[in-house]
Amino acid sequence: MKKLKLLYFQNGDDDSDFIPRILKATGYNLDDLKKMAEEKIDKIIADYAHFQVKTIDSMISYISKISANDMQLSPDFELNFNIDESIDYSVGLIVSELTEESTSFKKIIDYVNFFVESQNKFIWQPVKSIQENIKEYVNLHYVVGLKIHKEDVKTEKIKDLKNRIISCATKIQSIALNSNIQLSKKGRNRINKILIEKSIEINKVPITTDYLLNNDYKKYDYLFFDAVSDLNEAFHEYVEYVAEERAYNVLMFLDLIEENMDGFIKKKGIVPLSDLTNRLKNLLKEDYIPEIFYKLGSTYYHYLIDEFQDTSRVQWEIIEKLIENVIAENGSLFYVGDVKQAIYRFRGGDISLFSEIFDKYKGRVKRYQTFLDTNYRSVKEIVDFNNKIFSEDNLRNFILGSTKDGIFVEDVIDIYSHVEQKANKTDKSGYVCVEECSEIDEILNEKLPGTIRNILDSGYSNSDICILTRKNSEGETVANILMEKGYPVIFDKVARVNENTYVNEIISFLKFLNNPMDNLSFFSFVSGEIFLKKSSLSRDKILDFMFDNRENKSSYRAFQEHFPDIWGRDVEPFVRYVNYLPLYDTVTEIIKHFDILENFKDSESYIMKLLEIIKDMGEKGELSIDQIVEKWKEGEGNQSESDRFNILIPEYINAIKIMTVHKAKGLAFPVVILPYSLLDGKKGNTNKIYKEILNDEMYLMKIKKDYTKYSQKLKGIYSEETTKETIDDLNTLYVAMTRAEEMMFIYTTGKNKKENSLLFSGDETAIHIGKPVKKEGKNIEEKVEGENYYACTNVRWYANLAFHGEDAIFETVRREAVLRGDVYHKMFEEIIKLNKDETEALAVRFSEKYKLDKNEIKGILDFITGDKILKGFYSGDIEVFNEKEIVTGKDDVYRMDRLVIKGQNIYVIDYKTGEEYNYKHIKQIKQYMKLAEDIYGKKSIGVLIYIDEKKKMVING
């Protein structure tokens, strides 16, 4: 649309030669272009309602929700594209229930021992290691949809093959002895090892007659042909069986994982993507097309799929029916992508689809294929450098010099066959710097800060700079180093609210208020910035006080005596009313009293996120400080809780961006810095389990490189995976190196020989192309030393917060009654059935959980179980729905406290606290009764229970 507007108004933009290029390419004049642009703009506006932009995942989700009934699924099912939470849950459950007597004990011990043996070192964090190593295979099953082939280890077959190898070796020795032929030293040692030590070692070199015989006896090689052939055939079968056997422990543990995951998935109402795909496939196989396919097929006739290189086969198989239909109806499929930027193979991305689909429609429809040869993003220096690095000659030399064996060179070359581009930005200068350093510490602590300083001195702003890493852990390291040196940073556009200093000071204060004997939390708060700023005490004075009272079991009392005025003003009010206010109100009072938003503006969005979390917890019934503290603990390092604590960082924040290459894909930055090697993603991965895909089943194997000398099958699997890993590495580097617009800095160490062989020629250790760019017309920013920057929004949300004065807090009886009512409703929500002999134990539990008087609770429970009418609604043959929500056709929502189905009647029960009888109660419950009758078709009876007065009222129709 933007380009059409340019053609219509015929004015320039950053792409100043756009119109001349169009004129040259089409042969039209300016008037023709204007008229055609006007027609296209009018058509787009007229048809805009038919234009839809969706991700493939959201499209699949949409199709699935509409087709839920056809697939025998609940319409409110949750489609799962990420199974990390399920894996973490499953592993955690297995570990928590682990005993030496449990059936899972041997499986998990065998699995851990397998990886200890593979790595040849002790695993200090076995649970974390298990979670990381298992994800690839579980992901392939649950997301990509491949069934993992499981078969008992053929121990007898392996034993038979060992005996067969020994038999062949015996035959070779017998031939040599009977014919008086001397074996070579290597051959003799190899045969003796098999016969004497019964050791079946897989050497790098298979046995041949040439290997077996001394030069003087090679003319008798024909005597050994059959025996050597039989021996190698036995070795061939042996290594294939051993490869499967070595992966057996992984298979057994996968069984254990999936068993627990299936339960978790059903419990959460989750449908894995693979399960959904199979359900859709089964429908389509039965020649039944879900209605949504007809609807979409008659609505949309043209499909454009962007970033197609990251599309998985599962995703394609779901939308393929729609594509087939539109092509049959003279519609079109237009897919765009770059196989050099395919970096999501671990998520099922399949670059073979790119050419496979194009070939599939050969002869059926008109096909067009084009390659973009012009780069509109980067300046000439960067484009030319990238052309050189990823050229055929450089890649071929890199692969041939690689330590990895078996790479299919031509497959890699083919991926980069159209890499060369020309730069469109020829009027701008740029700079490329590649340097080899001694150690990574030198890069991170010296080169990186120095480079940033020089960039800022050249007129660039912090927000112009992006630092790319392969792993999140590397990004965290860079972020910490730069923040310590005073640079503002944004890491991956997301920050963790529970990692913010001031938020954690508030949590420490809440912990102390909840448990005044918690000296650590008390000290953490009074020595923090929030309290020091308000109290005007110096940190040294607080530290001295803490040291003097380190043995005191109730430090807060010592503080009260030592600083009575500060205690009375800043602490005592919160101690007095913490249990009388909802948690949300308590935190807002803390924010107001300590002027947190005014004093710490850079942490404003973190504080607002804290309030949002507390509000969300309150709506879920998590009302106490204990509960938020527990959630805080769960959120520390817990991936499944990460979204709750994440806070998005606004784009306009002027800070250095730090992100992974995967997150940066599709983006561009004036300056890009690569401080870590991007070609070492698989370095040291001795745990590698290889897979073979046959008929939608995945066969797992542990293949050692030596095995490939004896089996063409294993060699093919090994080489295919090694080639894909090499392409993954190169693509990751390519994506990173094509993000830069004007300047690019790459730092590497002498240890990164693989990356250096690609970047440098001969004995080079530094490359400088062009000159560092000076940014004219921009203010050079001053670096602020010693102050950490945090993302925040410029909108002052706290101006809209409703704070309460102290008088309002202690005089609002109504607020306390409402809070007490909410607690009682939450308490009764937990009760399904209730017997008189349970009331004592239940009162104790509810008292501890909801901080209410035990005797008061017991009195209410005794009232219900002792009433001859009420007790029937809490015992016997009843079906119970607590907090039953009903939505009417007018989208009005009603929530019933308790709905009981008993026999032919429905009982609608409503609890009242802090209120006496009111005619509105009758009106309300009659409305509920009418709704229940309409839904269930049974007579309804209403019951009002007045908690405080211990009275009931029964309403019949």
Q: What does this entry look like structurally?
A:
The longest helix is centred in the last third of the chain and has 26 residues, at 712-737. The strands form seven sheets. Strands 10-13-9-14-17-8-18 form a seven-stranded mixed beta sheet, with helices on both faces. A five-stranded mixed beta sheet has the order 19-20-21-22-23, with helices on both faces. Helix 6 (103-119) crosses helix 12 (248-268), helix 8 (155-178) runs antiparallel to helix 11 (225-246) and helix 22 crosses helix 23. With 957 residues, it is an alpha/beta fold. Helix content is 51%, strand content 13%.
pLDDT averaged residue by residue: 80
For the CA atoms, what is the radius of gyration? Answer: 36 Å
Low-confidence stretches: 636-642, 779-815
Helix content: 40-55%
Report the biggest beta sheet as strand number plus sense, adding barrel if it closes: 7 strands, mixed
Number-wise, the strands total 23
**End-to-end separation:** 63 Å
Percent strand equals 5-15%
> What strand order characterises the main sheet?
10-13-9-14-17-8-18
Please count the helical segments.
Answer: 40
Given the helix and strand composition, which structural class is it? alpha/beta
Shape: globular
